[in-house]
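Suppose you are handed a protein chain with no further information: no name, no annotation, nothing but its sequence. What can you learn? This example shows the usual starting point.
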Amino acid sequence: MSAERGKRATGSMLSDLWVLVRAYRGEDVFSGGRSPDGHAAAAVLGAQVRRGGRPSEVLLARARHAAGLYARGEVGAVVPTGGVGEHPPSEAEVMARILREGGVPLEKILLEDRARNTRESARLVAVLAREKRLEDMVVVTDPLHCVRTVGAFRAEGMDAAASPVYGSPMWRNRALRRGQLLREAAAIVGYGVRRWAQNV
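A reasonable first move is to predict its three-dimensional structure. Written in structure tokens, the prediction is:
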């Protein structure tokens, strides 16, 4: 995929659904969005925090993936995003701990600990990015979630690409992957309907 096609990988509802299907098949649909010079930051989308502040396997995989991006010099900072769910502390705080353990310096971790969903993460991270003058962002989440997440970040005016976490249980477990496919397809349709209604 060319860089230009990569930047257009998400857009209309139908094109997003098609990208989702291709991602489910295992196609590398986001490779064109990669920057040879790296990205200003990685936004790591939150996931479940268990009792006692323990990370779920999904959260752990995402945070470790982001730490790897930083270690390889592919991003200049990391923005863990996610508020408090069923169990405190916030998803962002738990990820920040994992990032520090993975070698990311404290000053390179920019916490966003209020978002309750993907759209709020995109909106709040975009505000933080403007404050910190972060010109572009790579989003770190499960492969199928990347489609909707990149679209949400771009809708907030961000120059966003994706770094899918293929080590996530949401990808490695076929039953979980099928379930996520259905949820993401429904969410993409919901986003599309809302955008249509706003423009009517």
